[in-house]
Amino acid sequence: MSTYIESDEVEIRERRLGSVLTYSGSLDNLLEKSKQRSLCSSCSKYEQCGSCGQSCATTIAIWVQDSVVINHSPIGCGLTSIQHAASVRDNAKGQNRSVQQLVTNIEEKDTIYGATRKLEAAIDEAVDRFHPRVIFVMASCVSGIIGEDMESVAYDKEDEYGVPIVPVYCEGFKSRMWSSGFDATYHGILRKLVHEPEKKQKDLVNIFNFIGKDRLADLLGKMGLRTNYVLPFASLEGIQNMAEAACSVQFCDTLSPYITTVLEEKYGVRKVKTAPPFGIKWTDDWLKEIGEYTGREEEALRVIEEEHQRILPELEKYRNILRGKKVFVMTGDTFAYQLANAARDLDMEVVGITSLHHDQVLDGDTGCGALEKFREDHGNLAQVDVCAKQPYQVIKRIQNANPDLVICRHPGIASVSIHLGIPVVPEGDKDFTIGYDGVIKLGKRIERTLRTQRVVKNIANHSKLPYTNWWLENIEDYYYSAPKEKDA
Q: Which of 163, 240, 260, 403 could make a disulfide contact with 271, Cβ separation 3.0–4.6 Å?
C-alpha cells in the first residue's frame, strides 16, 4: 500500500507506525515486540511534561528561505512557537537566513464566530511586510476544534498573490507523538511544493535534517556528488526540485522517513535505507549504498579507503584515552542508537540507551532501522528504555546506569545529569557527530568533558534533587505508566 495518500492530512504516528512513549526492557525484546506491533501506544497514563507537534512542524518550516510561518492559534501557542524559533535564530542569521513568523491571535469570541478573517488578514500582512516566496499556515488545537477551513483560505490567497500557501495540519491534540508534526509539514510540502521532475540528476543527493549545517557536502563531493540540503535553509527551488535527485538520505530514521519514502514511491528517488552515517562501519555502508544508486561504486570504495587512512592516527589516540569508559545515551528515537554506535567506535562501553519515543515500524520499511543495525553489530543490550523526557524516570535511568558520561540532546536532561554529578556531552547540532570526522569530534569532546568531573561533582554536592530519597528508593521507574516489559 502506498505511504502517500491524497488527503489534506497525514495519518498520525500512533496509527501509522505504532509509536510508543514508554518501554523498559531488553533490546531483543523491544525489536521482537515491534515486529508484532504489540507495544502499547496508550499505556503512559502520567506525564510531567511533553512536547507539541506544532513546534516540530514549525521547526521544519521556519528554515525555508524567504518563507513566512503563520501560526493560526491563540497567542500562547504562537509565542511558544516563536520562542522556539528565537532559540535557534542566531544560527539562521549565521546562514544569512531570516526567520519570519506571525500569529493570528485566536481569542475566545473567535471560537464562536470563527477566525477566518484573522487568517486572511495575517496572510495579507505577511505578503505586505515580508514579500515571501512561500507561506506556511500551521494549525493549532483551537483552529482544529472550531473547524477552521484553512484549505479554502490558502487557495483563495494563492490566486490573489501568486505565492504558494501550504496548510499544515499539526494540531497538538491529534497525537501524543510530537514527531507527527514533522510528518505534517513534510506532507504539506509534498502536496503543494514538490514538482514533477523535468529531468533526473544522477549526481544530486537530497539530505534531510531539521537543523545544523551541511557537513556531508565535502564527503560526498569526493565522490563527485552534489547535495540538496533540505529542509534547513533550503531554497524554494531546492524543495521544488527534490524529485530530480538520485537518492535521499536522512540524519535520523525517525525524522524524515515519511518524505523520503514518498519521494521513492512517487518519483523514483531512491531512499538510502542503511543506518545513517554515525560511526566508521555505518559510514562505510552508507557510502556504498549511495555509490550503488548514483553509479559511483568505485568512487565510494576509494573514498572509504582514503578516509580510513586519514583518521586512523586520531581515532587510535581517542580510543586509547576512552577505552572502557561507560556512557549513557539519551536522545530521540533511532538517533540515540546512532550516537551509541559512534561511542562504541571509540571503544566505550554503552551502559544504557534511552530514546524519547519509539516507532515500531518505519515508513517504507518493516524494521526499526538503526536499532536493528546496532544489535547486529553489538548484540543485545539487557536494558534499553523509551521515556518521553519525564524527569522522575530520567533521574532513575541515569542513576541505575551509573555512567562516567552522558550524551544527550535536550538541555533539561543535561541539567539532570550534572545535578547527579555526571559530565555531559550535549549533542545540540544534530549532525556534529556525523561521518568519519564526526567520530573524531565526538572523541575530542568526550575527552575534554571528562576533565570537568571534579567541577561537576562539586556542583552535585551543592545541589538538591527535586525528589526525596524515599521517592528514589521506593517508587518504581514506571509506577505511573506501563510495567516493565517481560522478555519475549
A: 260
pTM over 0.70: yes
> Residue 288: what pLDDT?
97
Grid cell 552534489 in the structure block, residue = 226
User: Can you read off the three cell numbers belonging to residue 237?
Assistant: 527551488
**CA distances for 34 relative to 30, 143, 343, 358, angstroms:** 6, 34, 25, 9
Sign of the C-alpha dihedral, residues 174, 30, 47, 391?
A: negative
Angle (nearest 5°) at CA 23 between 382 and 380: 25
pLDDT at 269 over 70: yes
Q: How far apart are CA 103 and CA 115, in angstroms?
A: 12
Q: Which residues are bridge partners to 70 per DSSP?
A: 102, 137
Give the angle 286-409-438 at the CA atoms, nearest 5°: 35
Instruction: Give 200-238 pLDDT, tens digit per residue.
Output: 999 999 999 877 778 899 999 999 999 999 877 889 999
Distance CA 326, CA 316 (A): 18
Q: Do the Cβ atoms of 134 and 193 come closer than 8 Å?
A: yes
Output the DSSP codes for 51-106.
--HHHHHHHHHTTSTTEEEEE-S-HHHHHHHHHHHHHTHHHHHHTT----EEE---
Alpha carbon distance 441, 248 (integer Å): 25
User: How many C-alpha atoms does 83 have within 13 Å on its Cβ side?
Assistant: 6
pLDDT of residue 92: 45
What is the 3 state secondary structure string of 138-203? ECCHHHHHCCCCHHHHHHHHHHHHCCCEEEECCCHHHCCCCCHHHHHHHHHHHHHCCCCCCCCEEE
The C-alpha atoms of residue 270 and residue 294 are separated, in whole angstroms, by 10
pLDDT per residue as tens digits for the range 400-415: 899 999 999 887 888 8
Number of H helices, E strands in the chain: 22, 14
Residues 266 and 405: their CA atoms lie apart, in Å, by 44
* Residue 270 to residue 368: CA distance in whole angstroms: 19
Contact 361, 18 (CB under 8 A): yes
Please name the residues in contact with 397: beta carbons below 8 A apart, sequence gap of 6 or more: 328, 330, 352, 354, 385, 387, 477
What pLDDT, on a 0 to 100 scale, did the predictor assign at position 484?
A: 57
Give the pLDDT of residue 95: 54
* Nine cell digits for residue 223: 565522490
In this prediction, residue 93 carries a pLDDT of 44
Q: What is the mean pLDDT of residues 160-170?
A: 96
What is the Cα–Cα distance from 460 to 330, expressed in whole angstroms? 20
Q: How far is CA 465 from CA 422, 459, 461, 473, in A?
A: 14, 12, 11, 13
